[in-house]
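Input (structure):
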């Protein structure tokens, strides 16, 4: 199984990028993993909120196949603990899922077709975080979940 992180937004700041690269490298010891950052449309400033979500939604859906398992990060999603995310990953691996995708939508969330396409919707917290920090938290949590699956010490530190 491959893990793909998709995020709409700007590139990471260097102080965040270093952490994301570290955790992504750690994840790669368990699963092939990649990041795809989707830049906001160039005409974003001239679009309404719904127009921007629709434009971003089209870009997102072009990256997802029918066989992919899509986990959408959204404030309205289900709260999982770390063992719960580990279980979600293990279930997908047991089902021979080819790609497990974790999606961070744009500043205003995702368009309805993307929301409906999601197999699972996950809320990291009731707090709101900047997208770059969500990328860092997500990569750390997926690494933590992988370490749980292998019964390694990281989760217990």
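Output (sequence):
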């Amino acid at each position: 199984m491959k893990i793909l992180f998709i995020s709409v937004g700007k590139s990471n700041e260097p102080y965040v990028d270093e952490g994301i690269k570290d955790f992504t490298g750690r994840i790669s010891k368990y699963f092939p993993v990649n990041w795809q950052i989707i830049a906001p449309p160039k005409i974003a400033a001239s679009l309404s909120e719904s127009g921007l979500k629709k434009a971003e939604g089209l870009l997102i859906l072009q990256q997802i196949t029918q066989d992919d398992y899509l986990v959408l990060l959204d404030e309205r999603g289900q709260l999982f603990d770390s063992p719960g995310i580990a279980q979600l990953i293990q279930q997908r691996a047991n089902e021979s899922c080819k790609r497990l995708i974790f999606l961070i939508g744009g500043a205003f969330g995702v368009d309805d077709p993307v929301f409906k396409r999601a197999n699972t919707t996950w809320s990291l917290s009731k707090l709101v975080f900047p997208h770059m920090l969500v990328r860092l938290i997500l990569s750390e949590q997926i690494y933590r979940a992988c370490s749980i699956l292998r019964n390694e010490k990281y989760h217990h530190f």
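Notes: Residues 131-149 form the longest helix (19 residues). The chain has one domain: 2-156.
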